[in-house]
Amino acid sequence: MIPFRFGKLGQDGAARHGIVHTARGQIRTPAFMPVGTAATVKAMLPASVASTGADIVLGNTYHLMLRPGAERIAGLGGLHRFMDWQKPILTDSGGFQVMSLSKLRKLSEDGVKFRSHIDGSEHFLSPERAMEIQRLLGSDIQMVLDECPAFPATEAEIEKSLALSMRWAARSKAAFGMQPERACFGIVQGGIYPHLRARSAEELQRIGFDGYAVGGLAVGEGQERMFDTLDATVPHLPTDRPRYLMGVGKPSDIVGAVLRGIDMFDCVLPTRSGRNGQAFTGRGAVNLRNARFADDPEPLDSACSCPACIGYSRAYLHHVVKAGEIIASMLLTWHNLQFFQDLMAGLRVAIAAGEVQAFARNFAARQGAEKDAAESVDPSPSAS
Q1: Are residues 150 and 251 both part of a single domain?
Q2: What is the mean pLDDT of residues 35-64?
Q3: pTM for this structure?
Q4: Interval 276-287: pLDDT, tens
Q5: Is 92 a known active-site residue?
Q6: Do residues 317 and 360 share a domain?
Q7: Which structural domain, as residue segments, surrounds residue 337?
Q8: Residues 55, 253, 266, 301: which is the catalytic one?
Q9: 208 with 301, same domain?
């Protein structure tokens, strides 16, 4: 088995590009991980996801433990075989979903007791059980269990939550044990308080992890606060380990986080938006439900090589979105994932060339073009 390791290939300012080596293949960074919530990236075949340039996908421990069950997946050969994805998989610990989806939950030092959002059945998730589930799934990168406090929260509330998360991190790492072919990532918490973020990063390094995630952001604090928090956090993380910003995000969020030294990202945004008629383009996001596309013969994005852009017009995509046809979700999800992977590839090239700041400026300048055009051509409220 190939041991897990991170190799940095280059750096431009704080932005880095490199390779995460795993037993199931390499992950080029900066990397975006499509979210495969229930062992599937919605509206996509695994081969189609890979064709966009994705090196890794994310699976959700919470959803998979409830249905079909981690023991069942293990009995069927593990998550890779189960979902026919032979590249790396990262699994979250389930903590975020437990805190956000379960209406009835009880938090204690031992873990969290909760009721399933599917059938109301009662379950208990401890740091040890979270790691056991991920071991059964057979994922390549496994996350510690942490508490995910809501935003906003007071400094005292965040500090109390952080202390619990650090104790859980130590228990998670102990439960993970020795698995050289797999990795265990710690999660930095601390809200928007720089000294708590620094404390969290330092405590996690004392425990010792293969990679370090930044959690508790993109929860309503806004982009400026998120970037300020990253500025206060990333310098406290080791340079020889991958850095993962959880649940982010918007293309502009990703670019800004890469400039601050983040290597890995995940978000449901490209897939969820695709299923709802929104597409990301080099000139900004567009809503294909908008009436101005009904007679538009142009491709969705002339710079994109995905099937939606090569084979179909904006008028067709508008039609199938409005008609609720399944192909709309398929095409727009594929396009959005391709856009995100092309963005990551562009960032890697720019970092290698020492031009990432210029790349970021040009990207930001282009992103308003679609919105400006929409407002000048079709300002009526009934068009959206």
Answers
A1: yes
A2: 98
A3: 0.95
A4: 999 999 999 999
A5: yes
A6: yes
A7: 277-379
A8: 266
A9: no
